[in-house]
Amino acid sequence: xxxxxxxxxxxxxxxxxxxxxxxxxxxxxxxxxxxxxxxxxxxxxxxxxxxxxxxxxxxxxxxxxxxxxxxxxxxxxxxxxxxxxxxxxxxxxxxxxxxxxxxxxxxxxxxxxxxxxxxxxxxxxxxxxxxxxxxxxxxxxxxxxxxxxxxxxxxxxxxxxxxxxxxxxxxxxxxxxxxxxxxxxxxxxxxxxxxxxxxxxxxxxxxxxxxxxxxxxxxxxxxxxxxxxxxxxxxxxxxxxxxxxxxxxxxxxxxxxxxxxxxxxxxxxxxxxxxxxxxxxxxxxxxxxxxxxxxxxxxxxxxxxxxxxxxxxxxxxxxxxxxxxxxxxxxxxxxxxxxxxxxxxxxxxxxxxxxxxxxxxxxxx
Length: 365
Ligand SMILES: NC(=O)c1ccc[n+]([C@@H]2O[C@H](COP(=O)([O-])OP(=O)(O)OC[C@H]3O[C@@H](n4cnc5c(N)ncnc54)[C@H](O)[C@@H]3O)[C@@H](O)[C@H]2O)c1
Known about the structure:
By secondary structure, this protein is of the alpha/beta class.
């Protein structure tokens, strides 16, 4: 059995997936048809690995990791006999469909064929192949070696063993797989992001708030909690009585806000009960106060981290410190950011003081 993972397409996501697998000590065959890109692939990987090492996020040398990745210009050489393919070609339906047809012939007969697609429903890939039971979308965040979540999206033809195998493999290489029960446009990641963006644009359009302050509300408010809690977990810990009390108190206000935007999806008793049960499997309600203290401890740890990490102050970070792959990912640490960072963290510290000790307020925070 060929133990390699085939990564198909060596652009930004293919390079990043190669790092995920190679860092987990799996050999990677990286197919990239463009000669120039293929020749640069290992340099790109090395730059990103050095940046990871600079942040103490590699447990071996960048050279040892990159040695597990073999860029090739021939699809058969990459995928022959492999049991898992992570397709990362351009977001073009016809191109992906023809690739899946080829991959079905080349990979092992029971290989999992996973597409990284951000928006193509797996059913449109499934109809391209003879055996659609092993096709799914495994949609990562960008880059997947820094954002562990990966959405596993089945078509109606995908069998459970395909999802099980993708889940097990991706978990074994350090990812955090989420299984969708069925395909839906945007999957979950982009639907959640879309809900926030739609409202943010409306608030700007209606003259309620400056765009910079929308980002500030997220950065210095909601995002701090959402860095370690989901939206259901957040309201569970914000309100004594948890999700159920929150829905009773705040549900009508949220329904009015939704109606203002033409959305009519009330939180029914059954939906709230389902969410409440799920959240309590992590946060049993009889320990609510302990969990609130835990949340505040994490917020304090984050606040301390923000204060000692001027890098977080952002876009002044223009000069690559050690050649980290994507300057947009903020992997650099220029001194120019320090003053801005100090001012911002001081402001955040004052706001934190004002908020302190206020854990059981009734509204949303
Ligand atoms: N960039 C993101 O933020 C992001 C996030 C999640 C998922 N995705 C998805 O990942 C996939 C790849 O996106 P990307 O941003 O890396 O694109 P990209 O354009 O950076 O890379 C695509 C690569 O595929 C190569 N390629 C072209 N034709 C090919 C073929 N026939 N077979 C194999 N490779 C081919 C290109 O030369 C290029 O190197 C897309 O489906 C995209 O929707 C992207």
